[in-house]
Amino acid sequence: MKPRRRVRLAFTALAFSAAFLGGSKAGAQDINCDRGDLEVMRLEFEGNRAFSDADLAKTIVTTPSAWARRYLHLPFTVKHCLDRTELPNDRARLIIFYRRRGYPKVTVDTVVKELAPGAVEVRFKINEGLPVILKSFVIQGLDSVPEKTRITRDLPVREEGRFDRYAIDAAGDTIRDRLRNNGYPRADAFNRFTENDSALLAWDTLTVTPGPRTRIGAIKIEVLPLEGKKQQIPTRIVRRIMGLDSGQLFREYEVIDAQRALYQTEAYQHVSITPDSGSDSLVTLYTRLAEAPMHSARVGAGYGTLDCLRLTGELTNYNFLSGARRLDLNARVSKIGIGRPLDGTPGLCPAARKDIFSSRLNYYAGATLRQPVFLGLRSVPTITLYTQRVSEYNAYLRTTAIGGVASLVWRGATRTPVNLSYSMDLGRTEAQPALFCAVFNLCDVAERDRIQKTQRLAVLSLSVTRDNSNNILSPTRGSIIRLEARHSSPLILSDSGLQFNKFVGDGSRYINVGGGNVLALRIRGGTVFGRNLGPATGFIPPQERLYAGGPTTVRGFSQNELGSLIYIARGYTKFLSTDPATGLPDTVVLASDSTYRRIVPVGGNSLLVGNLELRLRSPVAPQLLQLTLFTDAGEVWNRGAAQVKSVKLKVTPGIQVTAFSPVGPVRVAIGYNPYQRPKGPLYHEATDEGGALLCVSPNNDIPTKFFYDNTGTKVINITQPVGGCPSSYQPAKDNRFRSKLTFSFAIGQAF
Q1: What single DSSP character describes residue 642?
Q2: In this structure, are residues 475 and 521 in contact, taking their beta carbons and an 8 Å threshold?
Q3: Using CA atoms, how far apart are residues 320 and 682, in angstroms rounded to an integer?
Q4: Which of 378, 431, 518, 533 makes the best surface tag, with the fewest CB within 10 Å?
């Protein structure tokens, strides 16, 4: 039984994998349905061994209805019907396909079987026959080419293999492209073959005409300025950006790179580089440019569930100091409506009200200067100076008085830019006291103040991105891979208290499964070390810890709440106890009730997240809306912590509705979370009693001392021994279905 027959409906990752195996192809035409037409509910190929069902489906017009209609039986999804006039043509298409791939004696029959009233199965019965064997494959005409061996390496044709004319054509294209990238811009190739049908043998000769080995001669540049203005960017700067010199060997990919480099300055609205059509060993390059406006300004406003109201502004000069340098002046302000001093409308941002770090405005102001080229290399150097305040939901608030970043982007591989950067800033990071106490054993007020003072943070980072996707906002096919490494230590001028090594990797894959549906997969992992690479948990700046949970990671959990949690109690009650070590009386404090006031996300030094989505074409307004079934899995943990005995991934399925807007995909997601909140320490913040952080976890026996004022009635300070707050508190489980749902709103796809 074929894989697509074994598909079963299940709202799990297994169902999504089956969707991929059972999906129809993307290349076929849509067959419209009229009243009385037969719907194609199943398309089958029988007898095909050399080629898969998917390969054959791409060559024909007959198309089954959408995956969601055939297997999920969803109404209003894409419906395809049988066109009986095209069925004989599909048979002919399959015969031609097989013959060109080396099967001259192939036969194809068609069978239409009724599955239900108005629904049919279309089956193509194929008898491939024996293939034609390629006895000889000769390439001639390359004797004068010095790189002959490299030009003919790893071609998709081999003697004694199948006589595949598609593969032979591809070999000719490969040789032609390699020659044009090695000094032969006029190279061409054509083949002749002889075939013995009765013996099933073939002989092929690929004749190559490389033409003269050619170098770049003159480079002529013509610039069309804006109407009423003179040329803005000097010609010598244009030549430097192009990176081409007279006398160097002509390589087609270098000419394309030069054209791309000019476009990337955004100073031109038209760029063309055309070689002359002569047959000399020198080729003249004609470069024609049309300048664009050299200044632009943008302003914007938006709303986010966590950012509340936000404003952005950008001013750009594309020809700073007449060198095609780009100067960007950027400013951003968020938390408007809830953050001081522009608070006053907290009702606009109910989600942000739960974040203790949203009480102050977040802002960014910076200037970025980009140089178009650096030392003649295909790289883009950038220098940024900035000041900012940025917060992460209930995790930290980072305020940078002044900072700078110097980076170099190397684009040697078109789709794989490499970014090397060095940053240094003077700033301070504030986090909740319970985080410092429970994770880093920094429970004393003085110790926390020392960690949160203004310090110098220097970071050296290297990131690589490989983007083979077909769309930057909402890919439907291809893949994206990102890798990043970050290092901070006194060796690169960071303060001694701020040392870490961080590694994060992310890989996404997008598969078109037909009918406008997309199967999307992602896996993400990361780890952070302190001063060394051992298992011990050294201090790591809160902004460099790893967090998950929320609309872009595991949607069944609220923002940053995946992994260990710390709880803040509403109050405390004193109990008389006996010190088990000394037998002397002491005081123990416990939470005044079984509920908590808020949660403190802990994050971790290790992270693993996986996502699986089936993005379905909406039955209503399919150009505007998209429905998504998803399953997210992941965990965040603190490697080396005593309470971490085993790591178990949390799996949360859900549904999502996406609307495509001018600002990008806007998503509303509902994740199902069946898990009870984890056990964790419970603290009380005694802000009015000396700022003490008290452990009030159930069954704790930590001795607590109270200090009073001169009247003996008002508590002025409370102390406890450092560390040791047990993770014995766990909120009661709420079995109501509504309580297991997590709602989130975001702009942009999850990945």
Answers
A1: T
A2: no
A3: 56
A4: 533
